[in-house]
Amino acid sequence: MGNGYIMALDQGTTSSRCILFDEDKKIVWTEQEEFPQHFPKAGWVEHDPMDILHSSLRVMHSGLVRLREFDPDAQVRAIGITNQRETVVVWDRATGKPLAPAIVWQCRRTADAMEALKADPFGEVIRQKTGLIPDAYFSASKLQWLLENVPGLRAQAEEGRVCFGTVDSWLVYNLTKEKTHATDVTNASRTMLFNIHTLSWDDELLAYFNIPKAMLPTVKKSSDLYGTCVVADTSLRGVPICGVAGDQQSALFGQGCLQAGQAKNTYGTGCFLLMNTGDKAVDSQHRLLTTVAARVDDNVQYALEGSVFMGGACVQWLRDALGILKTAAESEGLAESVRDTLGAYLVPAFTGLGAPYWDPYARGALVGMTRGFRKEHLVRATLESIAYQVQDVVTAMEQDLKQAFSDETTSDIPGLPALKVDGGASANRFLMQFQADILGRPVVRPACIETTALGAALLAGLYVGFWDKNAVVSTDPMADTFQPAMEGIRREELLSGWKAAVASVIAGGKR
Ligand code: ADP
Predict the structure, then answer these.
(1) 52 contacts: CB under 8 Å, gap ≥ 6
(2) Residue of the nearest CA to atom 7 in ligand 1?
(3) Range 61-75 average pLDDT
(4) What angle do CA 59, 44, 215 make, to 5 degrees?
(5) Which residue among 315, 331, 380, 452 is best mutated to probe the pocket of ligand 1, counting the most ligand atoms within 8 A of its Cβ?
(6) Tens digit of pLDDT for each residue in 72-111?
């Protein structure tokens, strides 16, 4: 037998990637392909399901070719899939042909209906059952929209001739010999049709959104046999597809956050902070989402999730809209060239504010500028604003945890010992140090920041015995740790200034 590798397919919002890991969890090759985005109307976002599939097949194929050049005896032992969450695909059960464009998680076409639901008492029923705040972001209203607007789709679906799935299901169906129609529990938990306490599709929610049960996929563990690969490349034929998880849960797993209180934050376009809360589904009082963490065995673990809309995207704004940076990486040196922001704050509420404020009407502001304010101060204020937003989510999470565990006999309330980080903007050392200072806790950045793909690879590798659980939690000797170094009094001063700046953008209410 040749050397073994695990293949992760990371199907993201703008690109599909194939990443190959060796036994030491090291990346040996990455292939990436962007695919077209469609914006048929203002606020609408669609993908062609065939673009999702074909770009995935191409990166799998070329990834394998490159692996073979590097190691002629290479053998892929298992395949894991991680994916953009919430995006909806419908296809014909018999022919496998898509019956509509994929409606992407970002698409706002059902926003009005979902806004109305926020004020309806049924909104609270949804929150209790699914852990999600009623919003167009999740799959349910998108699927309902398709059933109501694609001619003939509802009748066909009621006869059991249509499959619905998130992107993982669509890929699993097409990549497996068995044409498996399944999803994993993390992806199911983002549809708003899945009861996260009973771990099953919820009849009351299906009735509310008028979704025929016959079109739903089977829900499986995240580390489980989904089927055997059937794609054209002969050496991949028969390889088990046995790891599936939504991107953020996959990253939580890839960071080894398997215990209550462990958390990771991904600094991508936005920021996604997930904290493992063990076997307890914490009912958030601070408008965070409760979701299911990747599931390996019979134990179910939950997570709290808070998302920030403008993370690394703030740096893109400095570069593309203002033109004061040539590259995102330049922001680090510029921010470090000044001692502080001269008391100014940027509140990057360009598209409203996410967790824990959830104010869609808030707008961006730069407050507290004085005469000496220069572009370096603006760059620093921008990077600091990312860290402040993450700090707000951490505070909300810790308050939720305190309430959730207050009546337990144990004094062992999970808290955040350190924040594990990944994503493009986590490369910024200034941002990571400032984040540690503002959190008052260490920030740990693994050498491999491709934790999303690593999570899917680990889930698949565990299933086939390529790795054991120690491999998941083993600490990375090459990780960078940023220790908090700021004095408490300075930290409080900065945080109170930030709170005042945020208040100034949300106080205006609906415009
Ligand atoms: P996504 O997966 O959401 O596309 P990535 O994880 O690839 O995002 O991260 C890209 C984001 O990170 C961009 O918004 C970019 O501005 C930001 N970014 C990349 N490098 C740096 C850096 N050195 N400093 C600050 N921001 C950065």
Answers:
(1) 11, 16, 35, 89, 102, 167, 170, 171
(2) 424
(3) 90
(4) 70
(5) 315
(6) 989 999 999 999 999 999 999 999 999 999 999 888 888 8
Q: Are 82 and 11 in contact (CB under 8 A)?
A: yes
Secondary structure of 59-120 in HEC code, one letter for each residue: HHHHHHHHHHHHCCCCEEEEEEEEECCCCEEEEECCCCCECCCEECCCCCCCHHHHHHHHHC
pLDDT band at 407 (very low <50, low <70, confident <90, very high): low
Q: Going by CA atoms, what residue is nearest to atom 26 of ligand 1? A: 425
State the Cα–Cα distance between residues 435 and 209, nearest whole angstrom.
41
Ligand 1 in contact with 428 (CB < 6 A)?
yes
Parse the chain into domains and list their residue ranges.
Answer: 4-248
Q: Which amino acid is at 234?
A: T
Domain 4-248 has CATH 3.40.50.1970: no
DSSP-assigned states of every residue in 373-404: --HHHHHHHHHHHHHHHHHHHHHHHHHHHHHH
Residue whose entry in the numeric block shows the structure tokens 């919003």: 135
Q: Tell me the C-alpha distance between 352 and 363, whole Å.
A: 6
Q: How far is the CA of 423 from the centre of ligand 1 (A)?
A: 7
HSE (side-chain half, CA atoms, 13 Å) at 444: 18
Element (H, E) at 481: strand 480-482
Do the Cβ atoms of 449 and 265 come closer than 8 Å? no
CB of residue 328 inside a 6 A radius of ligand 1: yes
CA distance 134 to 124: 8
Q: pTM for the whole thing?
A: 0.91
Cis, peptide link before residue 356, omega less than 30° from 0:
yes
- Count CB-CB contacts under 10 A for residue 331: 25
User: What are the pLDDT digits (tens) for 146-185?
Assistant: 999 999 999 999 999 999 999 999 999 999 999 999 999 9
